[in-house]
Amino acid sequence: MSKLRILFLCTGNSCRSQMAEGWARALKGEELDVASAGIVRHGMNPRAVQAMAEAGVDISGQTSKTIDDLPGLDFDWIITLCGHANESCPTVFGPARKLHMGFDDPPALAAEIARDAPTEEAAMAPYRRVRDEIRAFVEGLPDSLES
């Protein structure tokens, strides 16, 4: 039986989509073949890498890439993780089905927090929350895709 192929798509492939790819590899590697990409490339977010490491998943070796870096790859599902990616999702991936599962943007939330409570610990809070929300979503894959 072949693995279900999933692309996690976000705006910059720096945080949410990277977390989803990391969780999917760690929790569902036997069932899923996963990749992540962005509409644009923002580079890896160090706080996302740190939040995942705290949960025991190393994403430091993953790289930020765009959908153009994945030519010719066929996916069964494209899962958009932010509104911008959902609105900008390309149709170049053939028969892939699309699901939007929006999550808050940790860097934006951390920037808001920094104005009121400028500590690194406070800035990490949204990363940890979204990390855990993404984990809960990934734990339901692939069953949640068919419902």
Q: What does the secondary structure layout of this molecule look like, with pairings?
A:
Elements: E1 4-10, H1 16-28, E2 32-38, H2 46-54, E3 77-80, H3 83-88, E4 97-100, H4 106-116, H5 120-139
Parallel strand pairs: 1-2, 1-3, 3-4
Helix pairs in contact: 1-5, 2-5, 4-5
Q: How many helix segments? A: 5
Write the element-wise H/E pattern from the N-terminal end onward.
EHEHEHEHH
Q: Given the C-alpha coordinates, what overall shape results?
A: globular
Number of strands: 4
The side-by-side strand order for the widest beta sheet comes to 2-1-3-4
Give the fraction of residues assigned to helices: 40-55%
* CATH architectural name: 3-Layer(aba) Sandwich
CATH classification, class level: Alpha Beta
What's the Cα radius of gyration? 15 Å
Strand content: 5-15%
**Residue runs with pLDDT of under 50 for 5 or more positions:** none
Number of domains: 1
| Main beta sheet | 4 strands, parallel
Distance between the termini: 20 Å
Average of pLDDT = 89
Describe the structure.
It is a single chain. The chain is an alpha/beta fold and 147 residues long. It has helices spanning 16-28, 46-54, 83-88, 106-116, 120-139; strands at 4-10, 32-38, 77-80, 97-100. A four-stranded parallel beta sheet has the order 2-1-3-4. Strand 1 (4-10), helix 1 and strand 2 form a beta-alpha-beta unit. Helix 1 packs across helix 5 (120-139) and helix 4 packs antiparallel against helix 5. The radius of gyration is 15 Å and the shape is globular. The relative contact order is 0.21.
